[in-house]
Amino acid sequence: MTGIDDFLAMLATERGAARNTLLAYGRDLRQAEEMAGSELASLSAAQLAKLGQGWSSLAPSTMARKISALRQFYGFLVDEGEREDDPTHALPRPATRRPLPKILSHDQVEVLFQCAEAGAESDRPEAVRLLTMLELLYGSGLRATELVSLPLSAVPRDEPFLTVTGKGGQARLVPISSRAKKVLSRWLAVRPADSRWLFPSRSGHLTRIRLFQLLKDLAARADLPPEKLSPHVLRHAFATHLLEGGADLRALQTLLGHADIATTQIYTHVDAARLVKLVNERHPLARARASD
Q: Residues 143, 191, 205, 236: which is the catalytic one?
């Protein structure tokens, strides 16, 4: 019978799940199997209900993670034809609230760019590098690790895309704006030429820690609270401001490199008013009423 290892293999090959994700899912599923005292794939709804009761003392977020792993596992079994029923309806539904992403306003982003651009006017390599990284974090929504580990070969000669390797080793094409390409050209003209990395350092490529430090320093110089700025905050701002501009959620999922649309949906909270207005103005029934 199809089991946990088959499910994890599917996550790795079809969904590009990261190594840490695979380890966490495998750990949760095997612990559940051990608690149940029977092969996980053959458990009944009653056995799953008892298993959920055994997790009642856990933190809601921990229970939610374990239950999510089970739901996906049994959904996989049903898809594979190994089970006709999905017994996870017997599992509890812990109330969890996913924290909303921190975001920057348009004005705050503008202040950051003004500060970075002023510094880069000197054409000092460090200043041009910072402006380039800022353009790619906010303009293309890259993760910190994706940015610092970009090889020089990821930079296109003629096409307006970067080739980015994201979580789980999945590659995707990320658009770069015309202004970002101009700044990137400036950086390529002054970067050290003896490295395979786009943002080299003495020991390889720039580290995530150093990137965080550079952004905190930029925030301080721009009179913004340093704790408000990080690569992840800039990625959130990229997603939020795209949605505000009318971007499609599926397109945003592709740009961010999310394996699951549910991860991308966290951003819909920031633009609820626009979504309501969109339904009221664009839905066929709304237009029909307006014409009456």
A: 143
